[in-house]
Design a protein that fits this description.
This protein is an all-alpha fold and 208 residues long. The chain has 11 helices and 2 strands. It is elongated and about 55 Å long.
């Protein structure tokens, strides 16, 4: 075996979890979502707004980041591996119901939380954040094109947009907190690889 082949051979105790497309989509989406959250904070929290001052610029950055939010996922659809992961996220099985019941009971035993490539909590989060992002995009467009919609629509859209933004901020904080608590999962998104021990412990039904 050549030295080049040996350099590209993954360690025996590691397996591939995500490819470059999945990692790129996650990072780009996270960056855009972060821009949306930060600019929203500067728009709605007076103390932050005073630090920037240029409200019109912040509004434009917020709008552009919001419009671009679906783009990474749409681009990622060219990859069959990314489409396969979306299929895993959209498919709920009996083991997912077992996982959710254990989570509601706060049962932290690994044996009571079976999971395939993604656990039920990750599936619920992915579905919720995708739906919330679409609602934010729709209400944002209603607020943006004020001359195309009646006042009642704009008022309702503003109410939904503001309160859903707050909810998204809270949910994202929880998501980041869980990621911080699991360095191996973070490493899987950064490098694409995880240890076999972690995969067998956290995702025993996953067959890479």
């Amino acid at each position: 075996m050549s030295l080049r082949a040996e350099a590209h051979t993954p360690p025996v105790n590691e397996i591939r979890r995500f490819g470059p497309v999945q990692r790129w989509v996650h990072r780009t989406t996270a960056a855009l979502m972060g821009v949306c959250v930060v600019t929203a904070a500067f728009l709605y929290i007076p103390q932050f707004a005073e630090l920037v001052g240029r409200r019109e610029l912040v509004v434009r950055v917020h709008e552009c980041a919001g419009l671009a939010l679906p783009v990474p996922v749409l681009v990622g659809l060219v990859s069959r591996h990314f489409r396969a992961d979306l299929g895993h996220l959209n498919r709920f099985g009996p083991h997912d119901r077992v996982w959710l019941r254990a989570a509601l009971r706060r049962d932290k035993r690994r044996s009571s939380r079976p999971a395939a490539k993604f656990n039920a909590g990750q599936k619920v989060y992915a579905a919720w954040i995708a739906g919330a992002s679409l609602v934010m995009l729709g209400t944002g467009l209603v607020m943006w094109f004020t001359h195309l919609t009646p006042l009642m629509w704009r008022t309702s859209a503003t109410f939904v947009h503001d309160w859903l933004a707050l909810t998204i901020g809270i949910v994202l904080a929880g998501h980041i907190g869980m990621a911080i608590a699991d360095p191996e999962a973070r490493g899987g998104l950064r490098t694409g690889r995880v240890s076999r021990e972690w995969a067998e412990r956290e995702h025993p039904l996953w067959r890479p």
